[in-house]
Amino acid sequence: MKEDSLLRRLRAARPAAAVAALPGDHDALFARIVAGPGDPRWLDSRRSWPGVRPRVLAGSTVGLAGAGAALVLALSGSAAPPAFAITRSGDGSVLVKINRLESLPDANHQLTAMGIHEQVTIYMARGPAAVRGPVACQPAPGARLSGPPLRVLVGADGTDNYGPARTPGVVGLDTYHLDHCVTTG
Amino acid sequence: MTRDLPSERDAVEARFAEVFRHLDFIAGYAHRRGARDPDGIAAEAMAIAWRRLADVPAADARPWLIVTARNLLLAERRSEPATGRQPLGDLDLAAPADELPFELELDPDLAHGLRALAERDREALLLVAWDDLTPALAAASLGISPTAFRVRLHRARRRLRDLLTRPPAARPVAARQPDWRQA
């Protein structure tokens, strides 16, 4: 048996991965790892990777504007551990992926830390997203922005399920989707 | 399109992103070496790489990550299922790997031949055949020179070829049937 055929035989026997590694969670894992000391995410991310998804703590600044109305997410400070990922694309645009709506204030802080001096406000509407995928943010009227284009993705496909167990003040389990987002300086 | 100059933090994260892109590769490596939790090992290897980023070679992080993952695998095998993984602080990342288990689905002859190889010879073969590393990268993964690796790889091929061409009755019995998963 020649060496080449031996290697071919070995390669043919290479075990296939049982499942795709960390499916869909690469960005979240990256964000958790690079969280620095003092950040609530840091200790949370060490030694334990149950599903590689961050925990969600109670308490947020999310509020419901009114029954049937859009849900406006206030972007004030929050101590809740963020569940988001911010990535730069090759074309210079920035994708803000929000896995937990409560993490939006922290996502804005992170944008600032990255030198992107734009703040995102997102508007959620009831029901699932009609069109899946990220939504391009539009500058607020009168805003003069020079940063990279920002896109926001809520959940895996633009839809997030909300309920009283996760968001104080929101009554009744419901589903929302990202309707539009606005950037301000 | 012009972009702002990256901050120092951005530069560090960009550097780590180059390491992090090997996440699936390391998860695959851990899987191919029989890890119970290959994704967890890959994630921990990346967390260690972040904390020791200055130690990670800039040219190609894979050898460094393989050494880290290999030792995390050892810790996984040594730990009791009830107590979880060995604390990272107790790990010696420069320590040599112990014998690797083969509980994977392989054809019996090949599995027998691989088991009969010395661990270091087997690993040399698999780094090339299963992990697609160049001899230089595989040598770095084992902490030996490229020349020494070529010698080891040649020896491993020769021994495995010899094992596979022997009649079954003349084949040596593996010294140990790794069964750490059932331990």
Number of helices of chain B: 8
- Strand runs of chain A, count: 9
Query: Main beta sheet of chain B: strand number and arrangement?
Result: none
Order of helices and strands of chain A: HHHEEEHEEEEEE
Distance between the termini of chain B: 59 Å
Residue runs with pLDDT of under 50 for 5 or more positions of chain A: 19-24, 40-81, 163-173
In round numbers, the mean pLDDT of chain B is 76
Question: Can you characterise this structure?
Answer:
The complex is a heterodimer of chains A (185) and B (183). Chain A has helices at 3-12, 26-34, 40-44, 104-113; strands spanning 71-72, 84-88, 94-98, 119-126, 135-136, 138-139, 150-154, 159-162, 174-184. By secondary structure, chain A is α+β, with helices and mostly antiparallel strands. Chain A has one domain. In chain A, strands 1, 4, 6, 8 and 9 form a 5-stranded mixed sheet that branches. The longest helix of chain A is centred in the N-terminal third of the chain and has 10 residues, at 3-12. With 183 residues, chain B is mainly α. Chain B folds into 2 domains: 1-98, no CATH class; 104-183, Winged helix-like DNA-binding domain superfamily/Winged helix DNA-binding domain (Arc Repressor Mutant, subunit A). Chain B has helices at residues 8-20, 23-32, 38-51, 62-78, 108-116, 119-129, 135-142, 146-165. In chain B, α2 crosses α3 (38-51) and α6 crosses α8. Chain B starts with 7 loop residues before the first helix and ends in an 18-residue tail after the last helix. Residues 1-5, 80-100 and 173-183 of chain B have low confidence and may be disordered. Chains A and B meet through α1 and α2 of A and α1, α2, α3, α6 and α8 of B.
